[in-house]
Structure formats: C-alpha cells, structure tokens
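The protein record quoted for completeness.
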Amino acid sequence: MPKTIISEPSLPGAVQVPPDGQPIIKTGGANRGGYAKIASVITPDLDLVAQARPGDSVRFVSVNLSEAHRAYFAYQEELNRTREMLKN
C-alpha cells in the first residue's frame, strides 16, 4: 500500500493512516486527505471520538449499514429529546 495517495475529499469520521502508522480520525475541518482510508466512524460516535485525547485507546466495532442507520436514528431521537428539554 502506498504511504500517501492523491488528495481526495474526506468526510468526518474517515480513519486515515499516515506513513508513521498512527491513525488519524477526521472529525471536521479540512475536507481533503492524502492518506490511506481504512475505516469510517459512524455519525453517532463522532462526538465521542472527538473527545479522545492523543494516546487514548479507541476500540472499533464493525457495523453493517442497517446497524449504522439504527444508531443514527436513535442518536437523532436523543438529540431531539435534549433540544425539547432545553426549550422548557
């Protein structure tokens, strides 16, 4: 596998591996990347990943598209409940 690739669009949640082998998880900001992408963090888990500090351990679990959709809809429902609570 090449150490770098041609820069291409990269979405939040993309897990990239630079030449030093230390993964980078894109949580926002720049939307281009030139490292191999090996995985994606699903949207509901991005908030948790963004709170990790350098050197923290992060465990990945494979999910299929249906599981990712269910997690996303549950996440959206929780956000909506929180918004409603904050209105009152």
In short: Helices lie at 43-50, 65-87. The chain has a mean pLDDT of 87. The radius of gyration is 15 Å.
